[in-house]
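2024-03-11 09:14:02 INFO receiving multi-entity request
2024-03-11 09:14:02 INFO entity count = two
2024-03-11 09:14:03 INFO echoing inputs for audit
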Amino acid sequence: MDLAFFGVQLLNGLQYGLLLFLIASGLTLIFGIMGIINLAHGAMYMIGAYLVYDLTQRLGNFWLAILIAIPIAILLGLIIERLFLDTLYKRDHLYQVLLTFGLILVLNEAQRIIWGGDVHSVSVPAPFDASLPLTDNLQYSVYRLFVMGVCLALAGVIYWVIRHTRLGIIIRAGAVDRDMVEGLGIDVRTLFTLIFSVGVALTAFAGMIAAPLTSIAPGMGDSILITCFVVVVIGGIGSIKGAFWGAILIGMAETFGSVLIPSLASMVIYLIMAAVLLVKPRGLFA
Amino acid sequence: MLHSYPKRVHFLLLALTAIVATFPLWGKAVFGGQADFILEKLTLMLILALFAMSLDLLVGIVGLVSLGHALFFGLGAYTLALASPEFSPASLWWMLPLVMAVAAAAALGVGLLVIRTKGIFFIMTTLAFGQMLYYLVSTSPFTGGTDGVFIMFRPSLAVGETSLLNLDDPYVFFYFCLGVLATGYLFLRWLTRSYFGQVLDGIHDNEHRMQALGYATHGYKLIAFVISGVLAAIAGMLAAMQYGFANPAQLGWHTSGEVLMMLILGGMGTVFGPILGAFAYEILLFLYEHLTTHWPILMGLTIIVAVLVLPRGIAGLIVAPPGKAEPSKAPWLRRLVGKGAAASPPEVTKRRVQS
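2024-03-11 09:21:47 INFO inference complete, emitting structure
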């Protein structure tokens, strides 16, 4: 493998990893603060991608589509939290698993009813629809670099909010002892709604900016959900830092795995997870 | 976990068994030409009931929520498919032990990794290991990829040259599955009432205290995990015999989710609940599929409603209607674990079936 090709794969792995982080951070936030395991998280990624596809078709502008899709995603998160999750906080994980599994069936089928079973794609939007020449026959998509930049910026914002703001203090405290936070007079109910909506918006947004890079297909949320579970298990549940490094690790492993050992590529991430579990059963950063 | 059922439960189970077992007698009269099709569905329900029951040992009795139970179901199916000779039926005398051994080895391997984790970690890791096998099977060349493997001949049960049971006959196979399910049920009832089962019950209620009492709880949980996996693999093998093929979908996590749904619908921790759940789930599925091509939306809504209004399942309604107290657990265990005498009774009864 020559250096330029290696470099391209490195960038691809990084880009994929950063995208995974956006999804996994929502998953880990929702679990860490609210104690809810949300299987429908992947379905929201899919909804994000389809929303942007639909709106781009209608409006003819990708950026406008994203601008409109984000509030829709937040609203959807709000509705789900208020309508269904509200009753589940005090109950066993089992019921959360089942209820969100039911949500997956509903959301996946709703997608089929609204957008059908076909595979769609969204073209790379201007002004990022160019490629940077690396060598004579290798080039790199500017849009991928843009996605990387956006993900990194969002990761920075999440880090800043959690580390350096009052809201961040409440979130961290809530992850440690929910009852105590409530006892201090903080409205945990509203906090939960906020966290869930933000988490859902993050994963839907990941689906939106990933839309020009992947094929938009039914069930696309299921596979990404499992990958993100692996990320969260490796990083440690509830840890944003863990989600970040776990996502980068898995992004790299999957990208290089499919190039170097194609026959075992789909297994690589699970083998890594098994290895981490052997050494640190609670994840690397928990 | 319940150690003795109210009389009405025994009565109900016997009545249901009688109705199902006599189906070949009255099926033709009621369903006419559809009878063969219904028999096939009933056989499948019996198999799925065994599958759901095997999960109950893990979820309802020990309190470990697994979202990767389809791993063992699919493993049973694939072991049968891959180990069967191409041009002649395999013998069940060695196929059944082989399936059980493969499942036990896999459950031991996975169990050693996941049993140390708890709660949400257990859910996620079992899910991930299930998907690992799913991807392995659907991408590797010798398992037929996403198409799966066809099984040309059902295994035979014979002594020497004389066939004991002709499993190719749908009626014989139906009774065979009924027999396996009944054996599985009696085995699990015996297991949960044994000393081993009482320790599992104790782990469910308070693992730390069981550890403090000197029980190697990880070991107990691991054995329960292996037993549960082996039973699921037997169900998977029967399902593959029924369908005539092994398919990656049998391994996928949607199958794990569905069996969990059967368990909740029926009522977990009761051993007999999952049987009712499997039947109820399959009947609902059958109705919804006839109603609309978009049946998953109806099934999804049913799951959501069941979780919200019927957390203890059908069995919960039968065993302890609102206002009726449940039978207590073994006195020695109550004394050791200390719930019941000291804790407030309502909380104990609530936790029993719910958690």
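2024-03-11 09:21:48 INFO post-check: Chain B has a mean pLDDT of 84.
2024-03-11 09:21:48 INFO post-check: Residues 35-62 of chain B form the longest helix (28 residues).
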